[in-house]
Model the fold of this input.
Amino acid sequence: MKRNASLGIIRGFAAAFWERWRGYKLPFIATLLFGLAAHAFAMTNKLPFDDEAIYLFGKGTTTESGRYGLELLRLIMPDYSMPWIYGLISLLLISAAVCVIIKLFDIKSRVLQVLLGALFITFPAETGTLGYMFTAAPYALALFLSAAAVYSYNRQTRGGLIAALVMLAFSCSIYQGCFSFAASLCVLMMISRLVSGEDAKTVLVSGLRMLAMLAAALLLYGAVILFFSKLLDYPVLSGVVNSSQSIPMRIAVAYSAYIKTILCGYFGYVRGTASRLAHIALLIVMAVLIVRGEVKRHDIRHSLLLALCLFLFPLSCYCLYILADNGYIHALALYSFASLYILAAIIIDRAEPGWKLRPDAVAAAAMAVVIVCNTYFANEFSLYSYLMKENVTSFYTSLLTQVYETPGFAEGTELALIGEPPEFPVERNACYTRDEFTLLGKPVDSSAIAPFIIRYYIGSDIPLADDDTVAALKDTAEFAEMPVYPYYGSVRMIDGTVVVRLS
Done:
C-alpha cells in the first residue's frame, strides 16, 4: 500500500509538472538546438584553456572562494572535466532557465521565446564558461537557480519565499556572479508590471520587498560562510567595508562598464560592428516603444517610477561592482548582461500594434544578427582553442624529445622552463585579441599552463624545478649565454638540471 501511495504521489507530481510546463517545449528545444549549433565543437573536443588545463580533475577553488555549494556538488558531479556530459547538462539547464524566464515574464510571442533562448545560449559568457568545462555544469545550475528563485518568490507564498531564499543563497554558493542575474530579474519584474499597466505604488512596494528578499538571500549565503568560519574577509562580504573605493565611485564604475560593454565591446560581449549596431537598434526600438506607451498613459508617477527602474537596470546587472572589492569583476560573472534581451522581449511583447514600420520586426532582426554573431564567435573560439592545443602539445612534445636526449639526463633529472613560449601562428591569425575578449584568461601557451600540458596532455612525469631553483639558474653565466629555443644550445644541463630558454 505504501509503495502504491508513493507511486501515486510521484505520478501526481509528474502530471502537475507536465501540465504547468508543457507549453514551453518550443523554447526549450529551440534553445537546446541553438546551443548545439554554437557549442557542439567545444562539447566534443577537449579544449584546455586557463584553469581548464589545470583542473582537469577537480572543481577549482571551492570553499576557500566562498563556493561551498560547488564543493557540495562534488557528490553528484565528479571531479572530471567531461566536455560532452557537462556541456550537455549546461545546455539543458540554461534551456530550462529560459523557460522559467519566459513563464516569469509571460512572454507570449513564440518568435520572441525562440529568439530569447537563442540569445541566452549563444551569449559569449556561456562560450567562456564552456571554456572552463570543469565548472560549466555547476555554473549553469547556479544560473537556473537564480531564475527559479525569482520565479518562486513571485508566487507570493510563504513556501515560495523560503524556497527563493534557499535557492538564491545556494546559487551564490556555487558562483557568486549569479546574484547579479537575480537582481536584474527583480528590476525587470518591476518594469514588466509597469509596462503592463500596474499601479505605480503597488509596483514600488513589490520592488522594495524584492530588494529585501535579495538582501536576505545574500545574508543567508554569508551566514553559512561565517558559520564555518572559513572566509571572513571574502570580497562579497567585506568589499563594501574595506575597499578604498567609495560606493558612489563603485556605482559610477558599474554604469561606465555597462555603457562600454555595448559601445566599446567591453568584456567581448558585443562582438563586431554588426552586433554593436544591432544592440543600438534594439535600444532605440525599446526607447521608442516605452516613450510611446507612457505618452498614451498620461500618469506622471507611473512614468517616473518606470524611468527610475530603467535607470537602475544597468546597475542591477552590474551590481557586483558594488559588492566586490577593488572593482575587479571577471567577465564570466556578468552573465546578467543578457538580461537586456529579456527587457527587449518584455517591451516588444507588451507593445500595442499599429505601426507602419513594425518595431517588433526591427527588434527581431536585430536579435537575429546578435545570435548569428555570437554563434560565429563561439565556433571561432572553439576552433582557436583546439588549434592552440594542437600547437602547444606539438611544441612541448618536440621540446621534451630534445630534453631526453640532453647529455647527462637520467631518471629524476629536473626540467627548468625559463621564459615564455613563442607566439604561435594561430594566435597571429585569430579574429580577436586577448585584450578584446577577457573571458580567455591565461592562454594555453602560457608558462603557467605548461606543466599541466606536459603532464596531462603529453603524459610525461618529468619533474619540474621549483621557483627557487629557476631563479638561481637564471643568474648563472651559462644561462646568460644560451640562445632562445629552438636554436642550438637552447637546451642544456646546468648544475644537474635540464634548462630550456624559451625567451
Remarks:
- The CA atoms of residues 42 and 382 lie 6 Å apart.
- The radius of gyration is 26 Å.
- The longest helix spans residues 359-404.
